[in-house]
Design brief:
By secondary structure, the chain is an alpha+beta fold. 27% of the residues lie in helices and 19% in strands. The protein has four helices and five strands, in the order H-E-E-H-E-H-E-E-H.
Length: 134
């Protein structure tokens, strides 16, 4: 099994920049790109809760805004300090199903354990671009 500590450490570093004054639930993320680059993300809350942005979307959107695409993403780490492993919310699963390849490793970690999964495992039968074709 691959050691993902190099990536989860970067996600825990990104977590320090979370803005979570309402929930107090800080999340960090980090995208590893195939060119060796790393792009961090952290959750950013807002008093208008619907305007909140999750850490994993911040990290993946950061890759896309820099011109990277799903083929360029090697892995995504998402970390919290929660007692149990936290998985992406439904909105993030939908976004990740379109912006990651189905088998891209998604590394979920707290301080006690690490679980590696994929978006295909987290959101089987996802609605996507193919479903919009007439």
């Amino acid at each position: 099994m691959k050691n993902w500590e190099y990536l989860t450490d970067k996600a825990f570093e990104a977590r320090k920049h979370a803005y979570a004054p309402y929930s107090g639930f800080q999340v960090g993320a980090c995208v590893e790109l195939k060119d060796g680059s790393f792009l961090p993300g952290a959750n950013i809350e807002n008093a208008a809760y619907g305007s909140t942005m999750c850490a994993e979307r911040n990290a993946v959107f950061g890759a896309y805004v820099r011109g990277y695409r799903k083929e360029d993403i090697k892995a995504l780490a998402i970390v919290t300090e929660a007692e149990r492993i936290s998985t992406p919310c439904g909105a993030c699963r939908q976004v990740l199903s379109e912006l990651l390849l189905p088998d891209t490793p998604i590394v979920l970690c707290n301080r006690k354990e690490t679980v590696v999964t994929t978006i295909s495992e987290l959101l089987p039968g996802a609605f996507g671009a193919e479903d919009l074709k007439k």
